[in-house]
Amino acid sequence: MTAIQRRSIQYSQNFLKSRHLVDELLDKCDIGLNDIFYEIGPGKGIITERLAQRCRQVIAIEKDPLFVDALRAKFALTANIRLHEGNTCGSGQRNAPAATAS
Description:
By secondary structure, this protein is α/β, with parallel strands linked by helices. It has a domain at 32-101: Rossmann fold, CATH 3.40.50. The protein has helices at residues 3-10, 19-27, 46-52, 65-74, and strands spanning 36-40, 57-62, 81-85, 100-101. A four-stranded parallel sheet has the order 3-2-1-4. β2 (57-62), α4 and β3 (81-85) form a beta-alpha-beta unit. α2 packs across α3 (46-52). The longest helix has 10 residues, at 65-74.
């Protein structure tokens, strides 16, 4: 097993690759320009990028440090994306976001 495969299993990572599929899925959601959207596990940011075009703000929470660095670089100039490094499971937060995607 390669290091990448072990890392994928460790973080339970699965990735959408089709921007067309992401757009189709988001078209079926009721996401408006004034919405704030919490994305748990943005991974490579394919959904994050599309969400930023559809809502007021995306708050993305990623626990894999390698993806956090890549996402910070990718979205450095995107004002309506806030990236947080951390794990939402067992974080002690009692109020869960109403709309999430992973």
